[in-house]
Amino acid sequence: MTTLIPATPFADPAPAQRLERAAAALRSHGFTVEILDDTAAARTRIKDLIPDGASVFTGASETLRLSGIDDDINTSGRYDAIKPRVLAMDRATGADDIRRLLASPDVAVGSVHAVTETGSLVVASASGSQLPGYAGGAARAIWIVGAQKVVPDLSTALRRVEEHSLPLESARAMRVYGQPSAINRLLVLNAETRPGHGTVLLLREAIGF
């Protein structure tokens, strides 16, 4: 008799003990980690973490959009917001300037597609525009991560990206851009070598893809 094992519920928030396990593993790998109740708490905390006037790039993220953090950064006037500047530039004549602006802001803010209980962060991208800042180009990176993104290990994280995040992002991309998304770039952060560079705000609620 064959026993069917149900698929991992990638949309369900991880319980408290799994969040704590992931947070402890990330800290042991050099990341700064805070566990917060919800997006409202993250929205308030971001304002404390980013100084006024800093150059800030927000990666494309449903977590940032739904939480209001994207608008807080890009429309508040508190920061030197990179995304509005880039959107106003000519993609052909300003390509080099755009590349430099995206790669090395004071702060890169976004999310990830999976956090492992062994202490890794996984980010997939179609364009790769947010990845240089996350990997070390930005002076500081901050990721806001919903509790449903916590998974046991790296192999499960990659499954989550392919089976859960990609279909949802492809549907969004079709609505917005008229074409599906793809995993063209994949960044795995196993440790943070620069003290204070990477901060993870791990939420107890689910949000984003």
Note the main attributes of this structure:
209 residues, alpha/beta, six-stranded parallel beta sheet, four-stranded mixed beta sheet, 10 strands, 40% helix, globular, disordered N terminus
Tell me the layout of helices and strands.
Blueprint: H1 16-28, E1 32-36, H2 39-49, E2 55-58, H3 62-67, H4 69-75, E3 80-81, H5 82-87, H6 95-103, E4 107-110, E5 114-116, E6 121-125, H7 131-137, E7 140-145, E8 150-151, H8 154-177, E9 185-189, E10 198-203
Parallel strand pairs: 1-10, 2-3, 2-4, 4-7, 5-8, 7-10
Antiparallel strand pairs: 5-6, 6-9
Provide the gyration radius in Å. 17 Å
Largest sheet: 6 strands, parallel
In the sheet with the most strands, the strands line up as 1-10-7-4-2-3
* Overall form: globular
Proportion of residues in helical segments: 25-40%
Mean pLDDT: 94
What this model shows, in words?
The chain is an alpha/beta fold and 209 residues long. Helix content is 40%, strand content 20%. The protein has a six-stranded parallel sheet with strand order 1-10-7-4-2-3, sandwiched between helices. A four-stranded mixed sheet has the order 8-5-6-9, with helices on both faces. The model is unreliable at 1-6 (pLDDT under 50).
